[in-house]
Amino acid sequence: MPPFEPLLPASHAAQALKAGQISPQQWLAAQRQRIASLNPSLRAYLSQTDDGPPAEPATGSALWGLGFAIKDNIDLAGHVSRCGLAAYGAQPAERDAPVVSALKAAGMVCLGRLNMHPMALGATNRNLDYGDCLNPLRPGYSPGGSSGGSAAAVAAGLCTVSLGTDTMGSVRLPAAYCGVVGFKPSHGLLSLQGVVPLSLLLDHVGVIARDVCDVRSAMAALAPDRHWGVAAADLTGLRLALPANLHALGVEADVALAFDQAAAVLRRTQQVQTWARAPDAAQLGRYRRSGLLLCEAELHGRLAPLLESRSAELPPDLLAMMRYIEKKTSLDLGRALAEVGLAADAAHRWFDEADFVVLPTAPQTAFDLREPAPANQADLTAMANMAGLPAITLALGCPPGQMPAGLQIIGRRGDDARLLAWAEQVQTLLGAA
Q1: Residue range(s) defining the domain that contains residue 159
Q2: pLDDT higher than threshold 60 for residue 2
Q3: Which of 11, 71, 184, 199 is catalytic?
Q4: For the chain: N or C, fewer Cβ within 10 A?
C-alpha cells in the first residue's frame, strides 16, 4: 500500500485518491488502523462504524473517499446520541442528521462518534463515563471542549474532518488548544435538526479540520446552495479591528506574545485599526456568565427525569450546575437574557468600524487536566454565538515545548464565504512569516 499520511490536509489525501495513488479501501483501512493504535490512549472516539467506501466519486466533491467523524450529540442512523453521558437514555437514531447526510452525499465516510464534555456543558472534556479525552499534543492535557474529541481526532490524524457543536466556543476552543482549524458559521446556516441541543438560542454546528481549505470544502458540501468562491477583489482594502490591550481582556502572556507576532504580520498587509469598541474582561465575563445561565436553565428541563431518579449517575460538575440553576428565579433568567441581547448588539456594532475583528481565541493555551479549568475560557468566543456571527480559529506558531495559541477572526453575520477566503490568506501569511 502507498504511504498513508494522516496528518496531511484532507485536500492532499483527496488528490491522492482521485489520482489512484491509493484506493478508498486502502485509505479507510489505514485510517482505522491508526484509530486502533492511538485511540486507546487519546479516547477521542467513543464508538466506530464499519461503513465502507462510497461506490463512485461524488461529482464535484473535494473530499470524496475520506473519513469524517461526529460529536456524540449529532445523530447517526442506528447509533445512540448519548452526548457523552451514559445515563442519557436516548434511542438509536432513525436517520442521519442533515449535516451528516450532506457529508455522506459528498462521498465522505462516517468513521464514528467522538468524545465530548457531558451534555456539551463544559470546556475540558473530562468524562467520568467514557474516560477523559486527551490532547494529542501533550500527554495529560485537556483538548478543550465541549467538542474535545472532534479536535483531538483531527489533530491526531484519526479523521480528516470532524463535526462539533459550538454554543459559546465549543468548536473554536478545542481547535485552538489542539492546534487545528475550527469554524463556527453564521447562526442558522447549518441545520440543527438531529442535534441534541444545549441552547437553541446559541447552538451552532461547526467544522474542524487541519487547514482552512478543508473547512471550505466541507462547508461547500454542508451548504451547497451558498456560493463559496470569493474574488480576490473582495479581499482588498479590508479594515481589521485588533484590541489595543490584551491584558484588559484577560489574555495570558504566552498567548499575547503569539497574537502580537501575528498582528505584526497583518499590519504589514492590511488596514489595521485599534478596536475602539473592545469590551474589557469584566464585561466579557458578565456576558459569558449570562449565556451559561441560559444554557443551564435549558438543559435542566431536558435532564429533569434524570435529576429526579438518577442524579447520582450525573458527573459532579454537571449536577452542581443543575442544582445551581434550581436556585435561580425567572428574574435572574430575564436579566441573563437581556445581557445576552446587549452582547449581541455590541458585537454587531463592531462592524460599523471594521470588516473583521481579530482576537485571540482563548485567553490561555491547553492546560493539565488535573488543574482547575480557567473560568474565562469562553470569554473571547461567546459573543460571536450571542450575535450569530461566523468565526474561525487558526493555529498560531509556538516555540518548541509550548502549546499552540489560536487566532480568532470574526465576521459579519452571513459573510461566511468571505471570512473563509480571507482566513485562508491569513493562514498562508502566517505560515510564511
Answers
A1: 10-222
A2: no
A3: 71
A4: N
Whether 18 is catalytic is no
Cα separations (Å) of 185 from 216, 317, 388, 410, 414? 11, 29, 8, 10, 8
Q: Which residue has the cell 449517575?
A: 313
Amino acid letter for position 272: V
**pLDDT, tens digit, for every residue of 36-68?**
999 999 999 999 999 998 877 656 688 989 999
Q: What is the CATH number of the domain that holds 49?
A: 3.90.1300.10
Q: Among 142, 146, 150, 217, which one carries the catalytic annotation? A: 146
Asked about 23 being catalytic, the answer comes back as: no
**Residue 170 is among the residues annotated as catalytic for this protein:** yes
- Find cell 474565562 and name the residue: 376
Reported as a single tens digit per residue, the pLDDT across 133-169 is 999 999 999 999 999 999 999 999 999 999 999 999 9
Helix (H, G, I), strand (E, B) or coil at 206: strand
Burial of 225 (0-12, 13-18, 19+ CB in 10 A): exposed
Backbone angles phi, psi at 4, to 5 degrees: -100, 120
pTM (global) more than 0.70: yes
Angle at 145 between CA 144 and CA 148, to 5 degrees: 80
Banded pLDDT at 324 (limits 50, 70, 90): very high
User: Residue 94 has which C-alpha cell?
Assistant: 432513525
Q: Does 288 lie in the same domain as 195?
A: no
Question: Looking at the chain, how many residues does it have?
Answer: 433
Whole-number pLDDT of residue 1: 46
Q: What is the pLDDT of residues 282-306, one digit of tens each?
A: 999 999 999 999 999 999 999 999 9
Which of 323, 340, 357 marks a domain boundary? 340
Set 81, 170, 217, 290: catalytic member: 170
Q: Cα-flanking dihedrals φ and ψ of residue 279, to 5°?
A: -75, 165
Dihedral angle over CA of 7, 10, 11, 16, nearest 10: 80
Which of 422, 290, 284, 276 has the alpha carbon at shortest distance from 362? 284
Beta strands at 67-71 and 181-184: parallel, antiparallel or unpaired: unpaired
